[in-house]
Automatic annotation (TrEMBL):
The lineage of its organism: Bacteria, Bacillati, Bacillota, Clostridia, Lachnospirales. Gene3D superfamilies: Phosphatidic acid phosphatase type 2/haloperoxidase. It comes from Blautia wexlerae. Keywords: Membrane, Transmembrane, Transmembrane helix. It holds the Pfam family PAP2. This is Phosphatase PAP2 family protein. The keyword Transmembrane helix applies. Coiled coil: none annotated. It comes from the Bacteria.
Length: 180
C-alpha cells in the first residue's frame, strides 16, 4: 500500500521529470513571486476596497486572507512542522531559493485561494474567474518549483475554502437587510 507521503513524493518526482522545461522555469518563478508574502492579494484587496461597488468584496477578501494566514502560517505550519520536500528527499531539486519555514500547508496556495474564492463568489463573470485561474497557477508553481508537496497545496486550498466561506457568510449576515 502506498502511503500519502509516498504518493506526494511520486507526484513531485513525476512533475520534476516530465513537466519541468528550462524555458518555462522563469515563467513559473514569476507566477510564484505573485504569491510571495501575499503581496499581490493584499494589493488586490486594497484596490477592491477603494471602489464603492467592490468594497464589500475587498473587505470580505481581506478577512478571508487574514484568517487564512493566521490558521496556515501561525497555527498549522508550526504544529505540523513538516520539512520541505528538498530537505527530506535529495532527488527533489528546488528551482528557487529554499524557503526556511515548514512545508505544510502551502501559504502561497492558501493566500491565493482565500482571496480568489471570495472574488469568485462576489464579483461578476470573468472578474471572479480570473483570480481563481491565477490562484491555481500559483498553487501549481509551488509543485513545479519543488518547494511543496501536493498534500501541502491541497491543505492550503482547503483552509482557503473554509476561510472564504466563513468570510462570505459573515459579510452576508452582517450587511443583509434586517427584516422587522
Amino acid at each position: 500500500m502506498v502511503t500519502l507521503q509516498q504518493l506526494d513524493m511520486n507526484i513531485l518526482l513525476w512533475i520534476q521529470e516530465h513537466l519541468r522545461v528550462d524555458a518555462l522555469t522563469p515563467f513559473w518563478r514569476a507566477v510564484t513571486f505573485l504569491g510571495n508574502g501575499g503581496w499581490f492579494w493584499i494589493v488586490l484587496c486594497v484596490l477592491l476596497i477603494c471602489f464603492g461597488k467592490t468594497r464589500k468584496t475587498g473587505v470580505t477578501a481581506a478577512l478571508s486572507l487574514l484568517s487564512g494566514f493566521l490558521i496556515t502560517n501561525l497555527l498549522i505550519k508550526n504544529a505540523v512542522a513538516r520539512p520541505r520536500p528538498f530537505d527530506t528527499y535529495t532527488q527533489i531539486i528546488p528551482l528557487i531559493t529554499r524557503p526556511k519555514d515548514y512545508s505544510f500547508p502551502s501559504g502561497h496556495t492558501c493566500a491565493s485561494f482565500a482571496v480568489a474564492l471570495v472574488c469568485l463568489r462576489m464579483l461578476p463573470g470573468k472578474w471572479g474567474i480570473l483570480p481563481v485561474v491565477l490562484a491555481g497557477m500559483i498553487a501549481f508553481s509551488r509543485l513545479y518549483l519543488g518547494v511543496h508537496y501536493p498534500g501541502d497545496v491541497l491543505a492550503g486550498f482547503l483552509v482557503a475554502l473554509l476561510t472564504s466561506t466563513v468570510a462570505c457568510r459573515l459579510m452576508r449576515r452582517t450587511f443583509s437587510p434586517q427584516k422587522s
